[in-house]
Amino acid sequence: MIPEIIILAMIAAFLGMRLYSVLGRRAEHEEEMVANRFERPEDAAPPQAQAVPQAEAPRVENLTGGFAPAIERGLRDIAAADRTFQLLPFLEGARGAYRMVLEAFWRGDREELRQLCDDDVYASFDAAIAEREAAGHVLDNRLIRIEDSTIHSAMLDGRTARISVRFVSDIASLTRDKDGTMIAGSLDDAVESRDVWTFTRNVNATGPDWLLDETDVG
């Protein structure tokens, strides 16, 4: 009887040791897995922060090139309200419009003037053309060169951008009668002309076109 009890005890002890060895190793393995899951090794790279997209800010061109404070403020207001506005392309367009309007006026092209000018300026040009036609006069003027074009003033009036440009140009003027006889001027002698033209545009408009809103001697 005693030998049987001893044998049973030895079997129980053996089974207990086997069970402990299996469960103990499993528990240690699970603890290692938990530690690896939540604890970052010291030599591991820190997680990269994901960039948060930001709303694109209105692009305002650097307009601090020696302008008076009032002009600079006006240009910045226009650029903030109109994301398509850029100073250099505007000046290039203004120079082109200056040439186109003068040449259209000289040849009496009312249709082109209507597209380039607002109602008041167009009415003035139309009246001058009508007076010239009634007198039988024909202009043979030439824009020799635009020597300079600079911003004279700029402002945002509500939703309307207003920019005045001072043009310094050389113009040769010649007037002929209905028979083609020269009655005034000369194409050989260009005269310096100084003009201040104001262009306007609704900043909410879908098109890029500016209209000639005012002309003055500058």
TrEMBL record:
SUPFAM superfamilies: NTF2-like
Top-level lineage group: Bacteria
Signal peptide start-end: none
Stored Pfam families: Tim44 (PF04280)
GO cellular component: membrane
SMART domains associated with the record: Tim44
Domain Tim44-like, residue spans: 71-217
Compartments, record wording: Membrane
Keywords linked to the UniProt accession: Membrane, Transit peptide
Molecular functions per Gene Ontology: protein-folding chaperone binding
One BP annotation, GO: protein import into mitochondrial matrix
InterPro entries: NTF2-like_dom_sf (IPR032710), Tim44-like (IPR039544), Tim44-like_dom (IPR007379), UCP031890_Tim44-rel (IPR016985)
Entry similarity comment: Belongs to the Tim44 family.
Record-given protein name: Tim44 domain-containing protein
